[in-house]
Amino acid sequence: MPNSIDYGNKAIEFIEHYKLDAEPDIYKIIYDYFSGENPLLNSPIDERINNDKPVTVSFIDDLKQRYYNNDDDTIISDVSEKVGSEIDEVTRILSDSITSFEGYESNILEGIEELKETQSGSDITKIIKKLVTYNEKIVLKTRDMEDNLKESKKQIEDLNVKLTDTKKQAYTDGLTQIPNRLHFNQVLEQEVKEALENNASLCLIIGDIDYFKKFNDTFGHPVGDQVLRFVAYILKKSVKGKDFCARYGGEEFVILLPDTELKNAISVANSIRETIQQKELRRKSTNETLGNITMSMGISLLKHGENVEEFLARADACLYLAKDAGRNNVKTEIDMNNNTQFAS
Fold this sequence. Notes:
Shape: elongated
Strand content: 5-15%
Number of strands: 7
Structural class: alpha+beta
Largest sheet: 5 strands, mixed
């Protein structure tokens, strides 16, 4: 009979098949579809599957709006409950087994007392046979419990691996294999919170590949993808410790630098910019020289009491200042305030 892990595995396979993000609300809706906890899902999802129609994020969002209370905290809690419910199944197995063992133990003790008081040979034989039967039941019950626990343990481990892999996919940019915007947003919230609580410095770099659209149009999207992967590789090599880089979208990349002062963030940004600028790109298939690419970057330093949106907006404004200044340079809020140019 299917249990929570069976439904969990089916939900994950479904999410992977339709290339959906493994977000809590999507997981819950698909889980409820397989488990039958929300029968209203059967008709619309079955109709999609049976007619080979794509199951998209917008379709899932529509189901969420129609059939669920749109409370993200509730949804996340429900998903956690479903993923963790197999622990209850293990507890049930143990509880049932212990209850059975207690019953057999009681029967055996009663049989021993009867054996002590019995003088008749035929009665002794009957009691011994009864004790042997109880003992055999204990052995069989122990084996069943062991098999059930092993199977539950295996299923829990398999589901945990799948959930970990799916979560990694949901947080990773498919093209560049570095963290995506969803992951960045979560890390940004946490880092801003910690920096404000600890009165620590936090810098944000937003970088944009100069004239990327023109490069894409000239050499084609496959080459453009190669450029994005190259930039991501340089960024990944350039961060260390708690530093965090991600693809923000399109040709934009972001870097978070905790416990970093503005002057050091400028050094990091310029080092990355210069490394990218010095690399001569070649088309892999023909070894044709494609020239060089450059990046413009803007940097903001978190201010006391500032929120995430303001922090992001200032870095973005600095990026546009770098573009207006001719591109291939680094600008900060200091440049915005007094037009002083740092090394660029």
